[in-house]
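Good day; I would like, with your permission, to put a structural problem before you. A protein sequence and the structure tokens that stand for its backbone fold form the material at issue. The record follows directly beneath this note:
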Amino acid sequence: MVDDRHGRHERGRREAGDWRFHQRGDYTVVLFSHAGWREPVEFMHHCGTKWATFLLSLKELVETGRGRPAPDDVRISD
């Protein structure tokens, strides 16, 4: 089954997220990758941008006690 909106197959999806954390002085560094896409499709870029807004919201939550979860997150598409 193909999900045309996302340009990917529903079954046999291979993309995966990888989280890595390490300490740099007083800071915790979060490295995230979303890899394994079969081919570069438009939705891949949407996901990358959306993960960035999620991580910025997480940073804001940790630093201020208030993040920007949905539906108050940064809107990147219509």
Remarks:
- The longest strand covers residues 16-24.
